[in-house]
Amino acid sequence: MKINSIRGVKDILPGEIEKWRWVETVAHEIFSRYGFKEIRPPIFENSALFARSIGETTDIVEKEMYTFTDRGGEQITLRPEGTASVVRAYIEHKMHYPPSVVKLYYLGPMFRYERPQAGRFRQFYQIGVEAMGSANPAIDAEAMAMLLEFFKDLGLSGLQLQINSLGCQNCRPAYRETLKAAIRRHLGDLCANCNQRHERNPLRVLDCKVERDREIARGLPKTKDHLCQDCQTHFEEVQTLLRTAGTEFSLDPLLVRGLDYYTRTTFEVVSSSLGAQNAVCGGGRYDSLVEEFEGPQTPCFGFALGLERLILSLPPDKTENIGSPPDVYLVSLGVETQRETFRIAQELRASGLFVERDYEENPVSLKSQMRKANAKACRFALILGENELKSGKLVLKNMANGEQTEIPSSDLAREIQNRLGK
RNA sequence: GUGGGCGUAGCUCAGCUGGUAGAGUACUGGAUUGUGGCUCCAGGCGUCGCGGGUUCAAAUCCCGUCGCUCACCCCA
After folding, report:
1. Measured from the CB, is A388 under 7 Å from any atom of strand B?
2. DSSP bridge pairs for A162
């Protein structure tokens, strides 16, 4: 019986995984330098957590969640995003004591039931960052500047930071009504989708991708013209600070985003080197979410970036030669040498060397083993044949210049370490 | 959920209007009796995605089905 992987998921194989580890290492370094600490929430939660935080009328909740009933009768959902879990953990562990800004990041798989395509999977990985406990625009600007620094260190180019402000609980309701009224005048011209959603989620009409709708959207009232004084000031300060940090950005008044919890600043980073799914990172401020889950008033800013998309857009020269080759390829000839080959390999590894060998039970030719040593770019080939077994001296060949020397088997580790300069 | 493209060797792919498979690469051996990279020679490899139909004959034509992929919706 042949069983394949599930649609929309994939194995990350050796050769590919090195890129992942490199990206993760860079993220850990930079985020740590900005004072963010790692958190690892579970990958499944009570379904209600996601439904209430992301929004009942969003696509994620309406049709994309992996939900099941467990044996105890609980409604469980594989997390479609990370912010909800972090907010839950923040409240559950009372991280607001003592009062200070809590800066967290996480890394791991997310799950959404969608049709896969380039840069979109049913299990996909995100690195997310959440700064909790401050409404200071410096938080917004600092997080976005950190993000761009991260991209720069990875050697990414062709990225664009787009920002917008969605207002707050004070100014959004009025804007929402204004927008609805304006949309109503165009209902006949808008797509079926927009006709449906203008009542429940009118802001989403703004970022409809249908060309004719985009024309109309450009003429609709924009959030940025309907912000209250506080939101206006906040948004302007975010822009000022971004300029101070030397972070390039552009304003996109149609940037709305599909999760309901966003307030004030929202942003996306899009890459020109991806296909239709070009958003590498998205995020923004969510100032009321903690309160909605019965935590204290806690303004927050966060973002999540898609690792598959990030890795797809890495420049090729950055991803070559990741990982190091073996120090020694241990060549063995003849069946009589097999046990000694095993013993020497273990001894050299115990001394810290990276040793590869051949595992054919009926040893293949010396030529073939030398080819493998070469193909794996090994620094040295160490040859053990029947002659060497008798004399107790092995042949060590430097693969770069072809020089060979005989080394007593008792001195192997030390001699190789010396030649490697270790 | 809808639409386009594609499923042939481990990998990348060729195979025209039907005559039951081929190249490159990789692998193994040899030229070089126990020495890699370059070159040359030789060798093995296939349920032609699966099922059915048409036909003397199907990788090729028809129908169905599964899978992959790209795109729409939406998003990381």
Report:
1. yes
2. A250, A268
Find the domain containing A403 and state its range: 328-420
Q: Residue A64 in contact with residue A121, Cβ under 8 Å? A: no
Could you check: is the Cβ of residue A394 within 7 Å of any atom of nucleic acid strand B?
no
pLDDT per position as a tens digit, A316-365: 766 655 678 899 999 998 888 889 999 999 999 999 999 999 887 766 78
CA of A7 to C1' of B21 (A): 31
Mean confidence (pLDDT) of chain A: 91
Q: What ipTM does this complex have?
A: 0.86
Strand partners of residue A270: A160, A279
Å: A124 CA to B71 C1': 20
The pair of structure tokens assigned to A24 is 């993760």
A257 and A375 housed in the same domain:
no
Asked whether strand B has any atom less than 7 Å from the CB of A419, the reply is: no
Q: Which tokens sit at A367? A: 């030529």
Under a CB-based contact definition with an 8 Å cutoff, are residues A165 and A264 in contact?
Answer: yes
DSSP string, A33-72: HTT-EE----SEEEHHHHHHHH-TTSHIIIII-EEEE-TT
- From A295, A319, A343, give the residue that closes a domain: A319
The domain boundary, picked from A288, A319, A350, lies at A319
Q: How many domains does chain A have?
A: 2
**Binning pLDDT at 50, 70 and 90, where does residue A98 land?**
confident
Distance, Å, A49 CA → B76 C1'? 20
The pLDDT of residue A321 is 58
Domain identity same for A159 and A245 = yes
Residues A27 and A161 reside in one and the same domain? yes
CB A276 under 7 Å to nucleic chain B: yes
Same domain, A27 and A65: yes
The predicted pLDDT at position A394 comes to 95
**Structure tokens, A117:** 């395509």
A71 CB contact with strand B at below 7 Å: no
In a domain, A44, yes or no: yes
CATH code assigned at A246 = 3.30.930.10
Kindly state whether residue A374 falls inside one of the protein's structural domains. Answer: yes
Query: What sections of A210-326 are H helices per DSSP?
Result: 211-219, 229-244, 289-292, 307-312, 316-319
Quote the CA–CA distance of A118 and A66 in Å, as a whole number: 21
Q: Which of residues 148-177 of A touch strand B (CB under 7 A)?
A: none
pLDDT tens for each residue of A214-251: 778 888 888 888 999 999 999 999 999 999 999 999 99
